Amino acid sequence: MKFRTLILLVLTPFISIVLNAQTTVVRVGAFPNITHAQPMIGKANGWFEKAMGANVKIEWRSFNAGPSAIEALFAGAIDMTYVGPNPAINGYVRSNGEALRIIAGATSGGAALVVRSDSGINKSADFHGKRIASPQMGNTQDVALRAWVKSQGLKTRDKGGDVTVMPIANPDQLTLFLKKEIDAAWAPEPWASRLVHDAGGRIFLDERTLWPKGQFLTTELIVSTKFLQSHPDLVRKWLQAHVELTDWINGHVTEAKQILNRQIQKETGKALASPVLDDSFGRLQVTYEPLQEQLLRAAQLAFDAGFLGRQMPDLSHIYDLTLLNQVLSAEGKKPIQ
């Protein structure tokens, strides 16, 4: 017995080394946001860990904005991330199409133009001389806002007009809204709903009304090209879990919202009030559809706003839906063209 015990004591470190050598780490980015429902719920209930298997360790990385996630992917600090379309497009263009691929959609909808109830804004012409906030210069909502202003025959100050666009982080938008230092904000959920419920705002425009079938890309899943080429088996497993979780969320909305809210509270320290949760979730669609046409339109809007250089970039290879279609076919679902 003493000899066997001695042998185990000697071999245990080496067994541990072998086991650790067989473990693959997958580093995934996500935001503590309602438009990142799949990763938030997947974190909370271990959905992805179960799907990936015992030999895979998932390291979650939290970000507050898309550009930060793209920089982390460029630096090799993450392998995949859930992110908005404009940061993904910018990352693809900056890397000459080398750094990343979009492999699935995640969320459609979930953004609105909210005005202060006492701002005097009742029609688009009333935005003359007004101050409108967006979350970040060149982000998805910022591009949508600038495109809409132009479509209404208005001009932003940087284009010689009198509409001021102010890039302000979403939490600060709420504060400035209450202080009456901004007149409106183009905000993603849950911040649009918070501006309504917590700051007395009013929905002036639901962005879904600007898009065919009410669909526009808010969040998608991207992967570094290097990781996709090195570990297609792991990316496929992730996509399978992503598709299954998306279907589960859409079939269990009440339970999904509760789990999502608990995870947001865990990561941010504050849960969403029930009216905010219900309204914001009601303005978005959880989906794995990549919505390619919508992304290309978003890219055109970004180019028109001056964010993509002097020549419209070629985005013909920004998507790689091979593994997603394998997953869909295996589950008897229609592949995506």
Structure description:
- With 337 residues, the chain is of the alpha/beta class.
- The protein folds into 2 domains: 22-110 and 215-330, Periplasmic binding protein-like II (D-Maltodextrin-Binding Protein, domain 2), CATH 3.40.190; 111-213, Periplasmic binding protein-like II (D-Maltodextrin-Binding Protein, domain 2, 3-Layer(aba) Sandwich), CATH 3.40.190.10.
- 46% of the residues lie in helices and 19% in strands.
- The chain is built from 14 helices and 11 strands.
- The strands form 2 sheets. A 6-stranded mixed beta sheet has the order 2-1-3-10-4-11, sandwiched between helices. A 5-stranded mixed beta sheet has the order 7-6-8-5-9, with helices on both faces.
- Helix 6 links the parallel strand 6 and strand 7.
- The longest helix is centred in the N-terminal third of the chain and has 20 residues, at 2-21.
CATH class of the largest domain: Alpha Beta
Tell me the overall shape: globular
For this structure, the quaternary state is single chain
Counting DSSP E segments of at least 2 residues, the number of strands comes to 11
Structural class: alpha/beta
Question: What is the mean pLDDT?
Answer: 91
Outline the low-pLDDT stretches: 15-19
Could you tell me the CATH topology label of the largest domain: D-Maltodextrin-Binding Protein, domain 2
Spell the H/E element sequence: HEHHEHEHEEEHEHEHEEHHHHEHH
Order of the strands making up the biggest sheet: 2-1-3-10-4-11
**Whole-angstrom Rg:** 22 Å
